[in-house]
Amino acid sequence: MNHEDPVLLHTEGRVRHITLNRPRALNALNHAMVLRMGEALDAAEQDPSVIAVLLTGAGERGLCAGGDIRSIRDDALAGGRTSLVFWRDEYRLNARIARFPKPYVALMDGIVMGGGVGVSAHGSLRIVTERSRIAMPETGIGFVPDVGGTYLLGAAPGEIGLHLALTGDAVGAADALLCGLADHFVPSGDLPALLTALDACATPEAVVAAAERYAGDAPAGELSAHREWIDACYAADTVEEIVGRLDGCGVPAAKQAAATILAKSPTALKVTLSAVRRARRLDSLEEALDQEYRVSSTAFTGPDLVEGVRAQIIDKDRNPRWSPAELAGVTDEHVARHFAPLGNGELGLGPATGTTG
User: Fold this and answer.
1) Is 146 a catalytic residue?
2) Per-residue DSSP letter, 38
């Protein structure tokens, strides 16, 4: 095992360990890492001595902060297409994880964002700690939740998922459990003992039992107390009406949510609203990933992704100049183009490649 590799693989007992190993980049995913993970899952599935897979992140800060958006911006500015190939393989990996036939244990400790959600929240055993901060913050860089995020957030209770999709807000352990993004809370201090217990397991059933044995009650979250205004405000038909309801309902947290939303890309907000609502009507994760690939392919060619990454990552002035700059400038036709079929360029994971209206 070369400790410089961006993905480290080793086996303890009968558990195959996959460690994302770019700690200085908070384990941000690149194409090589996605391919390496796919190969590791193939090998683990075919190896009868392996009963489970365990995903962790190197370093102290978190599992994975998402994809390598700097390189995606560079690719877009150069008129390239390598990002589309990366997303194609990444989304296929997300679907692979969701259908993996052995326990797939993801330690969602620390920061887990964007692509990090995609390689963890589709797993069968998802562990969060008091340090977990989980988010799909794509609207802040002129992009739209992907990696199956629209499917996961669309399935959350009430309108909580849409609230998180539009604001990009991060949630802790209790709220991740509430939203269906995680299965168990384990205090971070108990993780070493949990790992030892997992490595000692001889059957898949024992892996599940070990995770349950170390699980406890998460510290109180925030979303449950806000369900009334979240469900009422985000049930509106348009982003403009959602913002209006948030701003006018008289709840300080709702007013803050309105201000947060208005700082995001207007195009990304309207496409995200449509994407989450469409995902709710789809029958499978695979169909949602097909839809997200269409959306990502269109967003890649638009002005807001490169501008959003510039403002947040390159220049760090936190002052993106969105185009259009206002919600009113984003037409229904512009939104609909993001969901148009790609012909021979479809991802093709689901049974059909048409759009859902």
Assistant:
1) yes
2) H
Q: Within its chain, how far is the Cα of 122 from the centroid?
A: 9
Q: What is the pLDDT of residues 114-141, one digit of tens each?
A: 999 999 999 999 999 999 999 999 999 9
Q: Among 75, 90, 146, 159, which one carries the catalytic annotation?
A: 146
Q: How far apart are CA 83 and CA 341, in angstroms?
A: 18
Joined together, the tokens standing for residue 333 give 């036709």
- Look up residue 296 and give its amino acid: S
pLDDT digits (tens, 9 = 90+) for 221-242: 999 999 999 999 999 999 999 9
Q: How confident is the model at residue 111 (pLDDT cuts 50, 70, 90)?
A: very high
Angle at 174 between CA 171 and CA 178, to 5 degrees: 90
Pick the catalytic residue from 110, 115, 116, 172: 115
Active-site entry in 68, 90, 109, 138: 138
* Catalytic entry in 66, 67, 142, 302: 67
Which of the four pLDDT bands, split at 50, 70 and 90, describes residue 172? very high
- Tell me how far apart the alpha carbons of residues 241 and 235 are, in angstroms, rounded to a whole number: 9
When pLDDT is cut at 50, 70 and 90, the band that residue 351 belongs to is: confident
The token duo for 1 is: 């095992």
| Residue 138 among the catalytic residues | yes
Report the percentage of the chain scoring pLDDT > 70.
Answer: 98
The pLDDT value given to residue 353: 45
Residues near 275 by Cβ (< 8 Å), separated by ≥ 6? 144, 145, 150, 291, 292, 295, 338, 339
302 is catalytic: no
* 333 is an active site residue: no
228, HSE (Cβ side, Cα atoms, 13 Å)? 4
30-to-25, 34, 83, 87, 116 alpha-carbon distances in Å: 11, 7, 10, 10, 11
Sign of CA dihedral 179, 181, 185, 189: negative
